[in-house]
Amino acid sequence: MGSKKEVDDRFKKFGTVSFTAISKTNDFVDYLEKGKVMGTRCKDCGRVFFPPRTDCHQCLASNTEWFEVSGTGKLVTYSKLQFAPVGFEEDLPYCIAVLDYGDYKVFGRISGDVPENEIKVGLEMTTKANSLPNGQLNYVFKKA
Amino acid sequence: MGKVAIIGVGQSNFVRQYPGSIRELAFEGFKDAMQDVGITTKIIDASVICSAPEYDKQRSPAGVFAEYLGLNPQPTFYVESLCSSSSMGLRLAYSLVKSGLHEVVAVIGFQKMSEISSSESQERMGRGADIQWESPFGTMMPAYYAMYARAHMQKYGTSLEDLAAIRVKAATYGQLNQKAVYRKPVTLDMFADPENRMAGPVASPLRVGDCCANADGSSCIIVAGEEKAKTLCKKPIWILGLGAATTTVNLAGRDLFSGLTVAQQAADQAYKMAGVTPKDIDVAEVHDCFTIAEMMAYENLGFAKTGEGKDLIQSKETYKEGSIPVNVDGGLLSKGHPIGATGGSMIRTIVRQLRNETGEIQVKNPEIGLIHNIGGVGLYGNVTILGRQ
Lengths: 144, 389
Known about the structure:
A: 144 residues; 5-stranded mixed barrel; B: Peroxisomal Thiolase, Chain A, domain 1; 11 strands
């Protein structure tokens, strides 16, 4: 999968502002376009990685496969930002958060449509692919 | 191999906007340390330059500083571990001296953050985390530490007032520090007034008063082997213990959100190397980039049991007269936080405390002091233990 561009810079589509253009995990962005949030699993030792990586430091191998982040995770912690770094001002206010899926955790944003008074540590949430107003892609946490 | 000492300490004033270039800024801290010990540049046989990149345009600042400070042709090193750069620089200097490769090493930390805007600075700071997988969500340091604050409050019942009490303590001493950026009093009432700037939201649950300010500044620590130290200096302060640790950059890789594993691990190493326990520490400087960071430091360093940091501040045990005085120079919350210079400033305070020369903020006859310096969001941890003997 993936386009046949001379320079495969698909990763520049990830997030409001991407700071990385080229990665061996570029397929992550294609999956996002198809509505899927994916991690990787080492085919040799079975270790799962989120964020995804193509190299397993345990096996020193690069033999990974994609798996879909599915089911629900528990909200570990979060913060609502009232100020933003350069390039993110239009998104304010927004919450960054960590979800715990047991085998792995996911760092991301809470969907803007989750009412603030319903956001609590321990809340069961799902991770969904998301399109941003500026045409970029990311993923967000929604109430399960 | 003999012991290793700190023979000279110095820092510039920490200011909002330094009216000069980075080499001129570095000169101020360097000159202060050189005058403190009273030696000439010929005696320094290597330098270690410490900062976080991208706040200024200079590539490879070590060479530029070596020239400007009169340290040619001696070799120079560049060390970077974000906000703990100069504690990491001290670790390198220790090993250079301990190995016998060099005898006297100057560790110079600097940062001129005012060359860029505050929001650009937040973006740079955010990129001290995982730029591939976290920064695209719009991260910044206050929000990361706010996530730790949320977890600590949830788990241990720590309150916003407990955090504010740390800022009030910092301001108590910051007012006395001529080199600090913020020297005004801060009260709990200011945090209780929604109209007051201190209570303004930044990244929930942290408020303006919970955060330190960016600053421009430089610091310098001069390190020497035992024999040289005894020849050059009347009151050498000895490096008794050093600890350093790292963890995952991405928060998704971590299990603990109510404390910093790097601080726990670095502290364990430093206590073991020094042969002391938390009860033996007479005075400490901890990395209070945010109030929650000082709260977690109390627990990670063993000054309080896990979850009981709030009791330590509420009982004022971390004030100058308490059982474990912490940040009696005002901390980063008062001094400001010029990333690369910060660790050196903390080390300077402890050295001067152990020499009994800090005047109004002097703790009574301290024998052993500790410095806790964190880089990034608990990404790098350095703990240093110093002693008079």
